[in-house]
Design goal:
By secondary structure, the protein is α/β, with parallel strands linked by helices. It is 63% helix and 9% strand. The strands form two sheets. Strands 6-7-8-3-9-10 form a six-stranded mixed sheet, sandwiched between helices. Helix 22 links the parallel strand 7 and strand 8. Helix 8 runs antiparallel to helix 10 and helix 9 packs antiparallel against helix 14. Bound molecules: adenosine-5'-diphosphate (ADP) and magnesium ion (MG). Adenosine-5'-diphosphate binds next to helix 16. The site of adenosine-5'-diphosphate has 11 residues, from helix 16.
């Protein structure tokens, strides 16, 4: 590839524009830039504004200064106590300006020293209180903002999930999706690390200023300790990071394992796999325990190492003080107490650089994963156009419809059919033939090739999804129920208020009312996760009631009555027959008796249309349908 710089030498021109472009493009390819792009995108979504960064940084700076001042005030305090003379504070750098405001401090002739001593102590206390008050305000402010940032990012991720196509969810495990949601927390972690590190770096800088003011020579000696400490702790921190990665992987495995098992409890029980599952879980759990122990063992080394190295360094410096300043006055030497105090507090703070590195390194993989939620690649978002679908004029037509869920395996092959408005179209055929797939494409769970599904001669892709789905009611093969009450499940998704009469009426139509009457809580009965507390037939009847209530123009019944006994089915069939009057209906049924009343029957086999026509035509033809019919005659 030709790079910008090569280009300049080849053309022989030193066009500044070209050079600038090349520099910019190189910068853009740099890792830091992509991290920056990712983080700024995150911050944008979280609603982080410059003020949210600048204000805490500013407050941190002030707090650090107060910390520095209270530390600096210890110098005259110690000096005065040791020499039993405080008069020098009138001339002391910085301090003299404060003293000027309080001329009385040194005037008390009885005990000027005591007065000055108390005055200095008061000042130290004042600045310590101010510093802590500021820090507290900053923390509360940050907590308030962080709460909002967290809410924003969770909301955004959730909303993104809702826009993804069904295909995305087919291919992604629930455990993974929940994990991704939880990854949002890492954005906060990065922010918190950033704020903490700014705070610490300011404090560090101020401490060093105080130390420099006391003795630049000793400060340089201290600076030598820093790389040693940094180097020692770096090894530990990188070890911690690699353990954290393993822990993360084990956590994911554990989560997936638990999710999988809990969602298939009956399967586990009926095959008596409890012991095997337990052993499996125990292994991962044990692995996690060991990893955590390892992490603790390594992590707990940080403090002792820090303490020992810092103490060694301080002892070393003490020796230097003894050598260099042996002839100094005791009052001068005593000031070094303050220096040591500052050094002892400042040195461990150097670890902040390691902490920043590990925190960012740990947050990077999850954040990159979370970042994928932002773009539409592999999300199978179903295309939609600007048009609003109002009502069906003539009918729905499939034109040469081809479809595959996975590349290389056609599920629908050149399907051509016409479903007329107000008529009942039945799709029949063996299981796996592609009937549900056709319906899935019509309700737009999956995207179809342009021009292959036409609604009143307009490509279905031109309509908004919302307007299309408002006019479609679907009873799917697997009745979907929310973990909520029967009432909320039946009235789900309706934007109008449902009266009790209406609810009772529709329950009667769906042959659900007698069942509900038996329940102590009636319509307020909770159905459990995915409706586990109901039988298959009851779930289907809830789904039918829901679809009947929706009163949409197009009704799609995908084996809606397959879990019902023949008698209930016949009863419901009457209600359905009544409900579908004047509606455009698509029925998929295994029991051919239920498709008897269809205006048109379409036989699907292996993703193709094998036959189509009215019941009589198909029976007369004595083809495919005739054979199915003969097989199932007893219904
Ligand atoms: N989400 C999916 N991902 C991949 N393949 C699928 C998916 N859903 C269905 N299929 C496959 O498509 C074919 C047709 O399925 P489907 O339309 O459900 O059949 P039918 O409703 O006629 O029984 C089947 O072979 C099935 O394995
Ligand atoms: Mg099906």
């Amino acid at each position: 590839m030709l790079k910008g710089a090569d280009f300049v030498t080849i053309t022989g021109k030193t066009d500044t524009g070209v050079i600038l472009m090349s520099i910019i493009s190189r910068l853009k390819r740099h890792k830091a830039y992509s991290n920056y792009v990712i983080m700024s995108k995150f911050f944008g979504i979280m609603g982080v504004k410059p003020i949210h960064i600048i204000l805490p940084v500013f407050l941190s700076f002030i707090a650090a200064s107060f910390d520095g001042i209270s530390l600096g005030l210890l110098v005259p305090l110690v000096k005065g106590v040791v020499s039993n003379n405080f008069y020098f504070i009138k001339e002391a750098a910085g301090l003299k300006y404060i003293v000027k405001f309080f001329p009385g401090v040194l005037l008390n002739t009885d005990s000027p020293n005591k007065n000055a001593f108390l005055f200095l102590i008061g000042l130290v206390l004042l600045f310590v209180v101010l510093k802590n008050a500021l820090n507290y305000i900053t923390s509360v402010l940050s907590a308030y903002w962080h709460g909002r940032f967290g809410r924003n990012i969770y909301l955004y991720v959730f909303e993104r999930f809702l826009t993804f196509g069904k295909m995305f969810f087919d291919r992604t495990s629930e455990g993974y999706l929940i994990m991704i949601m939880n990854y949002s927390e890492y954005t906060m972690k990065v922010l918190r690390t950033f704020e903490n590190s700014v705070n610490q770096i300011f404090t560090l800088a101020i401490y060093f200023t105080v130390m420099l003011m006391i003795s630049w020579k000793l400060t340089i000696v201290t600076l030598i300790v820093f790389p040693i400490l940094h180097y020692l702790l770096k090894a530990i921190v990188s070890r911690l990071y690699s353990i954290a990665q393993l822990t993360n992987a084990s956590m994911i495995a554990l989560q997936r394992n638990v999710f999988n098992i809990l969602s298939c409890i009956p399967l586990v029980k009926v095959y008596s796999k409890e012991d095997e599952m337990k052993a499996n879980f125990r292994n991962i759990n044990e692995e996690l325990r060991k990893l955590n122990l390892r992490s603790d063992k390594v992590g707990d080394l940080i403090n002792p190492i820090q303490e020992i190295v810092v103490t060694l360094a301080l002892l070393f410096m003490l020796a230097i003080v003894a050598l260099l300043f042996a002839e100094g006055k005791p009052a001068e030497i005593s000031v070094f107490v303050v220096f040591f105090y500052a050094a002892k507090r400042a040195l461990p703070m150097f670890n902040i650089f390691n902490i920043i590195k590990t925190d960012f390194a740990q947050a990077k993989p999850p954040l990159r994963e979370l970042y994928k939620v932002f773009d539409d690649t592999d999300k199978f978002v179903v295309a939609q156009g600007p048009e609003t679908f109002k009502e069906l004029q003539s009918g729905i037509e499939l034109k040469g419809l081809n479809f595959s869920y996975v590349k290389g395996r056609r599920v629908l092959n050149d399907v051509n059919l016409y479903m007329e408005k107000g008529k009942v179209t039945a799709l029949v055929g063996p299981s796996g033939a592609g009937k549900t797939t056709i319906v899935n494409l019509i309700v737009r769970f999956y995207d179809c090739p342009p021009g292959s599904i036409m609604v009143d001669n307009i490509d279905i892709r031109n309509f908004t999804l919302k307007s299309l789905r408002r006019e479609m009611a679907l009873v799917s093969q697997e009745a979907l129920l929310l973990n909520d009450t029967l009432r909320n499940n039946i009235t789900f998704g309706l934007d109008r208020k449902i009266t009790d009469e209406e609810l009772i009426d529709v329950s009667k139509k769906a042959r659900l009312y007698d069942f509900i009457l038996q329940l102590p809580a009636g319509f307020d009965t909770e159905v459990g996760d995915r409706g586990v507390k109901l039988s298959g037939g009851e779930k289907q009847r809830v789904a039918i009631a829901r679809a009947l209530l929706k009163k949409s123009e197009i009704l799609i019944l995908d084996e809606a009555t397959s879990s019902l006994d023949t008698k209930t089915e016949q009863l419901i069939q009457a209600a359905i027959d009544e409900a579908i009057k004047g509606k455009t209906t698509i029925v998929i049924a295994h029991r051919l008796s239920t498709v008897k009343h269809a205006d048109k029957i379409i036989v699907i086999e292996d993703g193709r249309i094998a036959e189509q026509g009215s019941l009589n035509e198909l029976l007369k033809k004595e083809g495919r349908f005739y054979r199915y019919w003969e097989d199932q005659k007893f219904f």
